[in-house]
Write a structure and sequence with these properties.
Distance between the termini: 25 Å
Strand content: under 5%
Helix content: over 70%
Largest sheet: 2 strands, antiparallel
Number of domains: 1
Radius of gyration: 22 Å
Number of strands: 2
Structural class: mainly alpha
Number of helices: 8
Order of helices and strands: HHHHEEHHHH
Strand order of the largest sheet: 1-2
Length: about 230
């Protein structure tokens, strides 16, 4: 009875944990990739739009990413903007980025916690031989259940990104610091709404590719296990 219930518990935990680890990993892959920013800056002519040399923009972005990675304590630095050396981010920019950084710290902590759960399950399964969750079924179910909600999300993004972008901020931020002014807050000029739309779609594409790989892997495992069982 314990073993049977143990398999069910492991199955349920895994179909929740696997998609979440995949999603958080894809978020980190894009968010911390400087080349991603360079590509979109070029695509949207950000440097020309805000009157900033490309080298200065990349230097500022590097500082920003170091801040998000917790490799620097603050965003106090200057840059040459339209031939004047000025403080790059406004006070409101910096306050908002404190909230953003806390979100990413939480995401990373949760990701490592979920990875720890996954490792514990692997240890348990390899130690207790009578526990035998259907790994093929786990991968198939986790990819299906982990993909469907995000297919809906893509549809919503394509239909009205602004609406759901606003909802996202209202859910994850308990203040109005995210309502930045393009006239005084450089953060909103560097990262216009279309920047986030493209970034969100890229994260989801990476996520779907990984989910597709796990689905195929699960199908292969399921099929091979069935063939092996037919031999005995």
């Amino acid at each position: 009875m314990f073993i049977k219930n143990g398999d069910k518990i492991i199955f349920i935990v895994l179909i929740v944990v696997i998609p979440m680890i995949a999603l958080f990993s894809c978020v980190n892959l894009i968010v911390y990739d400087l080349n991603h920013y360079k590509t979109l800056y070029l695509r949207f002519n950000i440097s020309e739009e805000i009157g900033l040399e490309k080298e200065e923009l990349i230097k500022a972005t590097t500082n920003l990413l170091d801040y998000l990675k917790d490799n620097r304590d603050n965003l106090d630095f200057k840059a040459v903007v339209q031939n004047d050396e000025v403080e790059f981010f406004s006070n409101k920019d910096k306050l908002h980025m404190i909230d953003v950084k806390n979100i990413f710290i939480t995401i990373n902590r949760l990701k490592y916690f979920l990875i720890a759960i996954l490792l514990v399950i692997i240890i348990i399964v390899t130690t207790i031989k009578s526990l035998r969750p259907d790994i093929g079924k786990v991968l198939i179910f986790s990819t299906i259940l982990g993909t469907l909600p995000f297919l809906l999300l893509i549809f919503l993004i394509l239909m009205d990104f602004n609406k759901y972008f606003t909802i996202f901020h209202e859910v994850f931020f308990d203040n109005d610091l995210w309502l930045l002014d393009p006239k005084s807050d450089r953060l909103v000029n560097i990262f216009p709404e279309k920047f986030f739309a493209y970034s969100a779609l890229k994260i989801l594409i990476y996520y779907f590719i990984f989910m597709a790989f796990l689905f195929v892997l699960g199908f292969v495992i399921k099929r091979n296990c069935k063939k092996i069982s037919e031999l005995f």
